[in-house]
């Protein structure tokens, strides 16, 4: 009697697992899915771990887009955080060697950090615009090919998108280039300190690092000027 009850419970659990496996199958109506469900009913302890595991995300999964965007955001943030950490280590290692210039350039150094983050945010905003459906081919764009005025507007629109992509690439190059240049100057600070260079050398390097904000500020000022010109037009 005990063996019969055990077999009955085993089959009941197996049937539940088989139904779950059948429903979760990619093609429930296929013969392979039916055979897999039968196997799951008879050998459900082997299928149970697979059933409880999370399905893998495929390339066609709509949620892959936000994940790629998050990876890009993490990449830019990680690069900025790395340079900030190296810069902090170099400045704190001066030990009063160039204390005066540090105090005088403190504000510009903070502006540099803020400019890095602002530039990264603008790059991500443009990336979202460039991946939006409006920037790709659409029914209206296809219909505009038969109307002269609409065709001209569509050509101008695509030209604006190309300029936006070019601006994004320039902003990205400016950001990465500035980060790399600051890292180079950081190593020069360490070299000056341990090679016995005069304090004036360290002060000069700190001033150069603080001046790196100008490159990003010029891009921001140009962007604001373009927005004002567009609005006036």
List keywords for this structure.
mainly alpha; 233 residues; single chain; flat
Concise structural overview:
With 233 residues, the protein is mainly alpha-helical. Helix content is 82%, strand content 0%. The chain has helices at 2-24, 31-42, 44-52, 64-92, 99-130, 139-143, 148-194, 199-211, 213-232.
Secondary structure blueprint with pairings:
Elements: H1 2-24, H2 31-42, H3 44-52, H4 64-92, H5 99-130, H6 139-143, H7 148-194, H8 199-211, H9 213-232
Give a description of the structure.
The chain is mainly alpha-helical. It folds into 2 domains: 2-52, no CATH class; 64-232, no CATH class. It is 82% helix and 0% strand. Helix 4 packs antiparallel against helix 5, helix 7 (148-194) packs antiparallel against helix 8 (199-211) and helix 7 (148-194) packs antiparallel against helix 9. The model is unreliable at 54-64 (pLDDT under 50).
